[in-house]
Design a protein that fits this description.
The protein has 68 residues and is an alpha+beta fold. It is 24% helix and 22% strand. It has a three-stranded antiparallel beta sheet, with no helix packed on it. It starts with 16 loop residues before the first helix and ends in a 6-residue tail after the last strand.
Length: 68
């Protein structure tokens, strides 16, 4: 976790197959642990994704909200 409270799970370059493969594996592992993945689709808009969109600048992973 960095000083902002965020953690970088993976970084990749779309043209680098090895980095994409590692990022996809990390992404899938986070989903298996219960994470929810989102990407922005415009100002104030986001979309839930179940596969890593390798062309995205940023994918946000978060845990489900706990409680009732």
């Amino acid at each position: 976790m960095d000083h902002t409270g965020h953690t970088t799970v993976a970084e990749w370059t779309p043209g680098d197959a090895d980095s994409v493969e590692a990022a996809v594996a990390a992404f899938r592992q986070e989903l298996e642990l219960g994470a929810i993945a989102m990407v922005t689709t415009g100002p104030g808009q986001a979309e839930h994704v179940r596969e890593l969109p390798v062309d995205a600048d940023l994918v946000i992973l978060r845990r489900p909200i706990a409680g009732g």
